[in-house]
Amino acid sequence: MVFKNLKVLYLILFLILNNTIASYSQQNIDFNFKNLIKHPDGKTVPVLIFEDKNDQKVNVSQLREDIILVNFWATWCAPCKEEMPALDKMIDVIGKNKIKVIAVNIENIKTDQAEKFLKDLQIKNFESYFDRELQNVNKLSLRGIPITIILNKKRLEVGRVIGSINFADPKFIDWLKKI
Fold it and tell me: Which of 44, 56, 80, 178 fits as disulfide partner to 146, beta carbons 3.0 to 4.6 Å?
């Protein structure tokens, strides 16, 4: 009987020790952002070109800000609507000269509809861009929205948010400032 209990005790100790070692060896991930996939070494992305409200082409690789967030959204998407004010606030905290949000509407709608949507949300720090033929969506193999691609100064993908997130969360902003 004592021998059997000793086996159980050793098994429990082994599992606890094994779990502790495994948790120390894993990458430090903020559990508040379970839908944030980080790429610490950066990941090459294809050339991303979007249209602005004047139908002018905008090449993301030619933008000068340190950090670019390419946020894919639609007017019918409730989580998109929910996260946009936090995206706007994040820019206030980090600074317009340091970060740029490319809010890419994936619908085939008129420009003024997208502008009205952002105006109704009182968005002041970014405007809508368009990917009406979903060329960039396909290049990036995106499934669902919202999805946000986070690019560093070298225009490598350092993170991807699948679903909505609180972009104004101080922990998220601190992480962004370090990339």
Answer: 80
pLDDT digits (tens, 9 = 90+) for 2-28: 545 555 444 454 444 344 333 333 344
Which residues are within 8 A (CB) of 2 and not within 5 positions of it... i.e. 6 or more apart? none
For residue 109, report the phi and psi dihedrals to the nearest 5 degrees: -120, 170
Lookup: tokens for 23 = 């948790």
Write out pLDDT tens, residues 50-88. Answer: 999 999 999 999 999 999 999 999 999 999 999 999 999
